[in-house]
């Protein structure tokens, strides 16, 4: 089974956001994660996101989705003290984009809520999906469900909103904490990944369109 470990986001923020999602050591998914980390080290992100030869696309997307959840979790964990009911009464990504929460089961009609509440709902919802063995099987030979790709797309679309909120509302805090290089690298990796497999609709990416163009132009 997957195990939870407390997430330590460094001494800057003692507040743990969500537990880190661990991929079991010795599993094929763990090997894939190690492969991903090794290719990332080469510095060529376009190449690093490509499906390794002979690997299953669903498994590659699953491993990377877990990894992005952990990265975003850690990045948001460093700025939670600045993202409050008072500073962020609505979940937004700049003045033109506001997000209302619904998960289709517990909350069917979208509700307007503060950014910290929205992100808490979102990350808890993602964590529940990742922990569901019928959606994200961790055992070799257990097939992925037929709807896996649409589940992964929804998760990644929602995780993008956390990046968008951090960039639009908290980038000054990120700069003060000297986290901008970490945030930019993580986001660039995320964007190249979703572009490689067409996982997020362009309209959904609109709040960070200019940044995405800038990051992409450096690698053409």
What features would you describe in this structure?
The protein is mainly α and 220 residues long. The protein has a single domain, classed as Butyryl-CoA Dehydrogenase, subunit A, domain 3, CATH 1.20.140. The protein has 7 helices and 4 strands; from the N terminus they run E-E-H-H-H-E-E-H-H-H-H. The strands form 2 sheets. A two-stranded antiparallel sheet has the order 1-2. Strands 3-4 form a two-stranded antiparallel ribbon. A hairpin with a 5-residue loop joins strand 3 and strand 4. It is globular and about 50 Å long. The termini are far apart.
Shape: globular
Q: Low-confidence parts, pLDDT < 50 over ≥5 residues?
A: 1-14
The main pleated sheet reads as: 2 strands, antiparallel
CATH homologous superfamily heading: MOB kinase activator
In the CATH hierarchy, the architecture is Up-down Bundle
Keywords: Kinase, Metal-binding, Transferase, Zinc
Protein name: MOB1A kinase
GO molecular function, one term: kinase activity
Binding site for Zn(2+): 83, 88, 165, 170
């Amino acid at each position: 089974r997957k195990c939870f470990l407390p997430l330590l986001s460094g001494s800057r923020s003692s507040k743990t956001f969500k537990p880190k999602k661990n991929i079991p050591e010795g599993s094929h998914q763990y090997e894939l994660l190690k492969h991903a980390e090794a290719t990332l080290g080469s510095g060529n992100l376009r190449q690093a996101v490509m499906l390794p030869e002979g690997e299953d696309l669903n498994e590659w997307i699953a491993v990377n989705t877990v990894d992005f959840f952990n990265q975003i979790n850690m990045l948001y964990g460093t700025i939670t003290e600045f993202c409050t009911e008072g500073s962020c009464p609505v979940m937004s990504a700049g003045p033109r984009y506001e997000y209302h929460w619904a998960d289709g089961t517990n909350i069917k009609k979208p509700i307007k809520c503060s950014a910290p509440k929205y992100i808490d709902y979102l990350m808890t919802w993602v964590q529940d999906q990742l922990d569901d063995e019928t959606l994200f099987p961790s055992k070799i030979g257990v097939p992925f469900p037929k709807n896996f790709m649409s589940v992964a797309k929804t998760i990644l679309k929602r995780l993008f909103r956390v990046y968008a909120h951090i960039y639009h509302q908290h980038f000054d805090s990120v700069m003060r904490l000297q986290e901008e290089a970490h945030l930019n690298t993580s986001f660039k990796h995320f964007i190249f990944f979703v572009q490689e497999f067409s996982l997020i609709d362009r309209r959904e990416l609109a709040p960070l369109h200019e940044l995405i163009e800038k990051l992409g132009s450096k690698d053409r």
